[in-house]
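Internal QA ticket QA-208
Title: Verify multi-chain structure generation after dependency bump
Assignee: T.L.

Test input:
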Amino acid sequence: MLCLSGCAISGKHSTAKSVSVHLSEGDADLANVPEQKTNDPWQSLNRTTFGFNDRLNTYALRPVAHGYAAIVPNRVRTGVSNFFDNLNYPVRFINSVLQGKITRSAQETGKFVVNSTAGVGGLIRVSDHISSLADVPAEDFGQTLGVWGIAPGPYLVLPVLGPSDCRDLAGFAGDFAMSPLNWHTIGLIHYGFITRPLTIALSTTRSVNGLPKAVESYDQMKAEAVDPYVAMRNGYLSYRAEQVKK
Amino acid sequence: MALNPSRSTLKLAMMLLVVSAGRQSSAASVDDAGAVLRSSVEEILSIAYSGRGNETLAVRVRPALEKCFAFDIVTRQAMGPGWRQFSATEQKRATDLFSELMIRTYSARVVGTQRPKIVFGSPVATASDRCEIPTRVTTSTSNEPVAVVYRMIKLPAGWRIYDVLIEGVSFVANYRAQFDELIQKGGALAAIRTLEAKLAEPVPSHS
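Actual output:
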């Protein structure tokens, strides 16, 4: 017989009064899963935005994703995805440095050199076949802020962009500035051949190319969840917490 | 120099032997968990990629999943503290429904055009009867390998899976967050009705 306070097991929703309970084998299982603390003070607004994004997915994004996947073979989509991933090298390199992960920043540089040359401009991820360069966790500015000790803040659902939190929203702005795709837009580079329509076309290609996978993941999550909003929120927060730890 | 070891040295040596034996036994035990997981995953993948019969994948992999998952423990943990409000009949019904949902979820995740490559890490003991086994899964559609951690528990019948973490997201903790609010508002009946409604939905097909 083991006596515990009811509060310890039922977490934030329990009353303050202490209740002695008999802890059976089943109850031990209940105590074994750590209670996730979620900071979601704007849940009502977030649920409304989630509903909007869900309809956007159903009526606009899913048809576009299915159409694109039907026209563009998987191998080509992977190549396009690899190209943009390679182009985003500065984001991962700068954030690795900002987090003090010097080895990782060197690995990112190695990946960029190998994939840009042997991988035909980044279309093929040759680095995956080099053990020291394969499987390098990608760093972003949201993670950098996390490593610096900044708390995630309240959970947010952004129109079109989906789940985020205050820290990742700031991180998104930082990564936007670090991405070469946006350097023309923010006035960092001025070359004649890089025009605004070209940067818009590249950004749109990247977004549309990523749609089939994103829509499939969302649909899968929704099919499995008993409350898709909570499933996405907790999944996102756990995933990001894990990425900060890596 | 004393040729005969003193009593305290003997005690220390015996303690070290006991600790060492305990560690070896624990290592052997979690190695068993690793072997169970490998053979279970191998069996499930063999079924999933052995050609399609008339039955759905969920139906075909069910016996293999029932052998390796501790469905009753997973359900209990996913329902969280609200589980105590369930009557015995409700507990049985919820376990059956949630097991069905897990089988559907797991089989939907293993399906793909090409058999995924799985690299198994060494089991790490987290308690005398529990361990975690890290794996890296590479599919034909994923650029990066996906980190999947299996949590296993030793039951009288052997090692069983009681949670799966995909890129740090715990299957059990995620469902627990969803059921927590549901059970607080509507009790066991709300959880059971929601599961029934979820299972009545058509299974989405992947292009």
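Spot checks passed. The first strand of chain B starts at residue 117 and ends at 120.
Status: verified.
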